[in-house]
Amino acid sequence: MRTRAFSLTALSYVVAFAAAAITVAVLSSESPLVRAFWADVVATCVVFGFSFKFNNSSFYDAYWSVAPVPIAIYWMLLPEAAAADGLRQLVVATLVTAWALRLTYNWARGWTGLDHEDWRYVDQRENTGSLYWGVSFVGLHMMPTLLVFAGCTALWPALAITLLFRFVSLKLIDDRMLARRPGYRARIETVPALLPRLRRGETTNA
After folding, report:
1. CA 43, 45, 47, 50 torsion: positive or negative?
2. Which of 21, 101, 19, 4 is nearest to 59 (CA)?
3. What DSSP string describes the chain?
């Protein structure tokens, strides 16, 4: 029974993340934050479908600890992220993954299977009666997803600060320098923006 329950939960997450990937592809013209947000929402709806089908809202219990990992990895793999600090990205991804593994393990060791549902969900069933599944969707599935995604937005600045500096701040500086020094374009073409280095034969007094 426990093996079957975990297999079904894993299946629900595979389907959920596949749906999320499709959502990202459909919203390719949107910003990375918008794409990730709607992908997260769609994935949550898929997990809720499994919760409803098998009459157990604990299908969702591991989702909120697992979801930040693909979100972080997705943002790291964006073409724009190539300009960001690789070491910082690696540290962020490692910490998020470690956090996810710890919380998911804590859930897994205590969940006995489809016959076991979080006691708080059981209370909600008793208190809400026929309205339970509406409460489950909004309060036990979607609300935690929104809260966790709000927390995940802190992962984006790890990339965004560098990208903002590279593509906005430096661009403004370059435009100003080009207006004052026409020969500055040659320097732009030969010196990296984020990691400037002296060209061969150039001295610090040049």
Report:
1. negative
2. 4
3. -HHHHHHHHHHHHHHHHHHHHHHHHHTTTS-HHHHHHHHHHHHHHHHHHHHHHTT-GGGGTTHHHHTHHHHHHHHHTSGGGGGS-HHHHHHHHHHHHHHHHHHHHHHHHH---TT---HHHHHHHHHHGGGHHHHIIIIIIIHHHHHHHHHHTTTHHHHHHHHHIIIIIHHHHHHHHHHH-TTHHHHHHHS-SSS--PPTT--TT-
pTM of this prediction?
A: 0.74
Quick one: what percent of the chain has pLDDT higher than 70? 74
Q: What are phi and psi of 87, to 5 degrees?
A: -65, -40
